[in-house]
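Run folding on both entries below.
>entry_1
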Amino acid sequence: MNDTPQARSTFLAEETVAAGASPRAAGRLDRWVLGRMRQRLLGIPLRVTLWDGTSLSLGDAPEMAEVVVKDRRTLLALVRDPAVAFGDAYAGGRLAVRGDLIRLLMAIYRHWEGTPVGQHVEKPSRRPNDLRHARENIHYHYDLGNEFYRLWLDRQLVYTCAYFATPAATLEEAQTAKLEHVCRKLRLRPGETVVEAGCGWGALALHMARHHGVKVTACNISTEQIRYARERARAEGLADRVDFVEDDYRALRGRFDVFVSVGMLEHVGLRNYGNLSEVIGRSLGPAGRGLLHFIGRDRARALNPWIRKRIFPGAYPPTLAEVTRDVLEPASLSVLDVENLRLHYALTLRHWRERFEEAAGQVAAMFDESFVRAWRLYLAGSEVGFTTGYLQLFQITFARPAADVPWTRAELYR
């Protein structure tokens, strides 16, 4: 598969051309399909308008947005596979949203949650996430180029949920607070050894070494991210205390005092939880402890199919039960604490989305308009997912039975 950003955007653009520039007037079939859509989506304060001006409101409340479907092919696709078809058509310009995209997505999420379709538990993909597939998946999303992510992430390029002591905190303040929050939960002490699985651009590893005096081994399979992290470690005089390894977490060797993973578990895949459990088990010493920070769910179901297909291939947000049963219990690790930062991630995504919109012209110059629309929808949909509770953000701290554990949580909030 040609998985460059240009290839993905070209695919969407070609879909637009294939739809035809001058579609015929809507016929009886099109109006019937529109009526069926109203039956399925009744209650959403939304108007759907077809390419010839034929229009129908889907609810009795005042409409918050209008969706314009630009051709028959898109209309039929929305009936067959609404989630993927909506995302592809929006990105490809074959469907337009007039009005507030966030409010529209909020209404759609809440509508589907109350229907039998929304309550259906879709079995997660059992596609093997071996090293080859893992590298492909990571390259697809994280190797888009550091310059792209610099446009809308914080200065340290932290691409995970921030921690807002107050909602008024800046994104930079909140991301630094998240790094420190993780370190306090781990109760790091000078001279200890830490292994980090999936280190992103290296912000947490460098923070741990600089502010807590630990020695860190951090691994990642994104070439772009590892290169950046190594350069930053050298520039900041921390290369002797942080070893950035370009390799998969399954290749980790050695014994450490602490294991930490922030934002990687979503990419591991259910079939590999046994491997991850074995890695954590062999990595931690007799008094070891650790933390897992990950996007999760209240009940088992697969990620949004469009996001899984176009943005995050291979991703799966697990439930707490799946993580404790398949990752921690087999390694005889005790859960110490669970915190849900769902609303913190919704606010993080709002910051990212606003920054992304400010840089949309630069992003379009890097890629194209289809890429901009796809990422606009991804960021908006993710924000709504956390706002509504469709997605959760869990932090689990765990330890060996012999570990020195805190008596209370007081030290986290000094």
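>entry_2
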Amino acid sequence: MIGIRLFLVTALLLSLSACTVGPNYKRPAVTVPGQYRGVSPDSSSPAAPAFGEMEWWTVFQDPALESLIKEALANNYDLRIAAARVSQAEAVVGITRADQYPSVTGTIGVENVRTKFYPGAPTLDTAAIQASYIVDFWGQYRRATEAARANLVATEYGREVVRTTLLSDIAVAYFQLRQFDLQLEYSKQTLVADQEILKLNTIKFKGGESAQTDVLQAELLVQQAEAQIISLQQSIEQTENAMSILLGRNPGSIARGARLTDQPHMPEIPAGLPSSLLERRPDVQQAEQVLVSANANVGVAKAAFFPQFPLTGVFGAQSTSVTSFLQGPASVWSVGAQAIQPLFQGGRIRSNYRLAWARRDEAELVYRQTVLKAVGDVSNSLVAYGQSRKFRAKLEEQTDTYRETARLANVRFTGGVTSFLEVLVTQQQYFESSLALAQAWSVELQNYVQLYKALGGGWER
């Protein structure tokens, strides 16, 4: 009992006098603008919640898309792998933290000894408890635990980065799929109209009212629409396959909801303040936790310059027979303490310390860069969304003009006022503008998704 008390008292006294070397973490000062470039003056209403803080199901209100996102969040392999990495990081914290506590082992042994001092070959029975403890006098193990915990949090934020990326990938792919659906719809409608024109031109040619070139030009329109249909069917199936992989299932068909032009989305985006990105974006949070870990590892490296204080203790009993052991064996105990100071290691300790600082400096630069990129992402996304809406509106006007031009050209040709070449040109222009308009709708919605992602939307703190 005296040995146990001495061991505990010594450990307690050294622990109470312990300190923690190395720099304490302080978030680096970063410069962010007061307002994003590209933000609309109409979106700065103080009553409007920031776009990035809105729940994803309020941002994407198509029931089919909502169902796909839920399925992806439950089954996507990248997200499940990220969750497994979080479990690994949790285990590393437990392993690292164990160094802060004593290590205790128990031993039981039987030994038969035959020497000139023991001619009768007695049997020695022993039972002992061994304890060892390296006093964390300089905070080396506490800093290591701090670094491991920061890595755990960084891994958790990394999982949220995967989550927001997955959510945006599903939405972008869905809007692209609906673009191909809309373009296929336009192409089939155009094919029907072109086939009617071809039929009419064939009748007129057989009746001697028009030249064979009119028939050939009408065939060109039909062939153009047919080729476009084939290409779109390929794009649809490949997009469905890619989405199926994101959903964690084998390639197959994807359910649809609202038409591309009927997808609800906000005309003006309340972006919020750039300073909120420091807390809102998971990649910024992840970069900061990596910096916290690197900062703590500087303390681990610095503690190696100072002496360590290992304590050891053995408490047990020994007897020459089981009977005497049960009746009252001879007790054995020992307590030892050491101070171990590195004297020469070829510059290894100093180089490790410089390496820790270099990694910490790199982590700080990465953090600053991540913040800068985050602000840039939002600014670019705001510009892209605003300009894509204007571009889509102009394409709508252009497509309406081409539609009317093609209609009038067909009327003029039917009345014998103009050649079929005018019908050919205007019909092609209307068809191509319709396809471009569907793409413009898709680009607008994809920019809507990218803006939500850039603002840190799609995960919960």
